[in-house]
Amino acid sequence: xxxxxxxxxxxxxxxxxxxxxxxxxxxxxxxxxxxxxxxxxxxxxxxxxxxxxxxxxxxxxxxxxxxxxxxxxxxxxxxxxxxxxxxxxxxxxxxxxxxxxxxxxxxxxxxxxxxxxxxxxxxxxxxxxxxxxxxxxxxxxxxxxxxxxxxxxxxxxxxxxxxxxxxxxxxxxxxxxxxxxxxxxxxxxxxxxxxxxxxxxxxxxxxxxxxxxxxxxxxxxxxxxxxxxxxxxxxxxxxxxxxxxxxxxxxxxxxxxxxxxxxxxxxxxxxxxxxxxxxxxxxxxxxxxxxxxxxxx
Length: 297
Description:
Elements: E1 8-14, E2 17-25, E3 66-71, E4 74-78, H1 80-86, E5 93-101, E6 110-118, H2 123-136, E7 138-146, E8 149-158, E9 161-167, H3 176-180, H4 191-202, H5 215-229, H6 247-254, H7 259-282, H8 285-296
Parallel strand pairs: 1-5
Antiparallel strand pairs: 1-2, 2-6, 3-4, 5-7, 6-9, 7-8, 8-9
Helix pairs in contact: 4-6
């Protein structure tokens, strides 16, 4: 097996302890099915070409520059050397600024995951940081220049090593209020909530990424195979959303409870409640007094 190639090498520093580390990509899309863009008429691959939006003439790479639009059709031109001059200088050091409880981590801010491993002679200091964070159940917030940008990184203990996730900046993460503002204020209670809790209890499991299939990739592979073999794929039926009036019925079916059993249970429960109320009423001081009056009268 070929050893993975590090994406970045540098140091991680906590307090006055410095440890050489290597950063490796933890997630990759290289195994996904990829397509080429073709000319439908000839079957040949097509090339992407940049052209001037006004003249329609091709523009070579050396003549292309970055530009920031300040108003319609007017741009501030940024030369490559000007952009390079403002890129933060990298000292190749992940400086840990704080340790935070793992329970406080908001995964909404996660960007890309990487593995951190000791490089060269940094094993002892690396193990000290890893085991210390695991025992304290904390993660580390660190900053460094990665791939020409100053990034905030969340570092956590992960098996024999560390996992580092680059974080989105606050301005990049939309407020949840925008997504949830149209939701009505509903309070779910009674049988519906009890059935939902029952279904959740019966469906409890453990997290195993190996159980999750990429159905889109599998469907694409089957489509390509079917096209090669001249077969037609069956059309898939789309799921139908539960209507508000059918929600209780769907919950009962999910919990394995039919309508007649549920009705019988409710009737039995109501009968028991009525019997309890009657018993409590007959045993109250006023009821006893009334009964005594009737006997003496």
